[in-house]
Design brief:
This protein has helices spanning 20-25, 27-40, 44-50, 53-57, 59-80, 94-101, 107-123, 140-150, 173-185, 206-215, 243-252, 257-266, 280-288, 303-312; strands at residues 4-8, 87-90, 130-136, 156-163, 166-172, 190-193, 271-275, 293-297. It is α/β, with parallel strands linked by helices.
Length: 313
């Protein structure tokens, strides 16, 4: 069996036009968009293909849009190749895509839940109160140290451990600014404030987590047919009994992406395929371990490289 891992991107990877080429070429993609429209009662296809970008960027829209395009890309792959993954992982929102592909949650339910998740995350903290910043070129231990010191004045915490030398911090604006300043003093190459409207993956998202918990009262879950690595623990610990708890914890806890990828590597993967818009996760993998081959599937032109990866894996 090919030793391949499947990856699914998170919020920030959206762009106007995503998924259109797949839609124009594959009936299965048309069917998935129709299902999304039926579940959400909005024209998600028009939003993805025509925008406008500012409307697509809204958290409540971006999350179901990315999930839909990611799942559609996977279904095209599944229709063409008989390949089973060693494991799956998704970055934040992408974890829902992974669970849908693994058969643990129905797409119809998942796309509705992530739209609610987006609304809850956006409303948990008033706009302008919180923010996030990427700390570049500093060891995670030093970033954690900077956050602890800054938090004595204003709350901030690590939110995404993306790859060596890239940790995103999240919290109140003052806390993030102070942590960024301290990180630069400790040797960071730079600290870049992100264009986000809320402090995602911090304890400030706990109100969103509580609201999200109620959404799962109406969602049927099953054991995944493939191992799915959780963001919060960086191990493949998803079962029908843990899905709700892990997805709720994920909202207000750090995404341990670098650790998750190391877990996947330790499971024997030799290559990864990223399904959905962009290739951010491919780029992170190259910074984590350059020996792992990477490919992404977001349009039909990518399929030739995918075929090579599958044959050589």
């Amino acid at each position: 069996m090919p030793k391949i891992g499947f990856l699914f991107p998170g919020q920030g990877s959206q762009y106007v036009g995503m998924g259109k080429e797949l839609y124009d070429n594959y009936q299965i993609v048309k069917d998935i968009f129709e299902e999304a429209n039926e579940s959400l009662k909005i024209d998600l296809k028009k939003l993805c293909f025509e925008g406008p970008q500012d409307k697509l960027n809204l958290t409540e829209n971006a999350q179901p849009a990315i999930l839909t395009v990611s799942y559609a890309a996977y279904k095209v792959f599944e229709s063409l190749f008989d390949v089973k993954p060693v494991a799956l992982a998704g970055h934040s929102l992408g974890e829902y895509s992974a669970l849908v592909v693994a058969g643990a949650v129905d797409f119809f339910d998942a796309v509705k839940v992530v739209r609610a998740r987006g609304k809850f995350m956006q409303s948990a903290v008033p706009i302008g109160i919180g923010t996030m910043a990427a700390i570049l070129g500093l060891a995670r231990e030093k970033v954690e140290e900077a956050c602890r010191e800054a938090a004595e004045e204003s709350y901030v915490q690590p939110a995404n451990y993306n790859c060596p030398g890239q940790v995103v911090v999240s919290g109140y604006v003052k806390g993030v600014e102070l942590a960024s300043k301290l990180a630069r003093i400790k040797g960071a190459i730079k600290a870049v404030q992100l264009a986000v409207s809320a402090p995602f993956h911090s304890r400030l998202m706990e109100p969103a987590a509580r609201m999200l918990a109620k959404e799962f009262d109406y969602v049927k879950v099953k054991d995944p047919i493939f191992p799915v690595i959780s963001n919060v623990d960086a191990v493949p610990n998803y079962t029908k009994d843990t899905i709700r708890e892990l997805l709720i914890r994920q909202v207000s806890n750090a995404v341990k992406w670098e650790d998750s990828m190391q877990t996947m590597i330790n499971m024997g993967i030799e290559s990864v395929i990223e399904f959905g818009p962009g290739r951010v996760l491919c780029g992170l993998m190259r910074k984590i371990n350059r020996k792992i081959k990477v490919a992404n599937l977001e349009n039909p032109k990518n399929l030739k490289k995918i075929e090579e990866e599958v044959k050589n894996a």
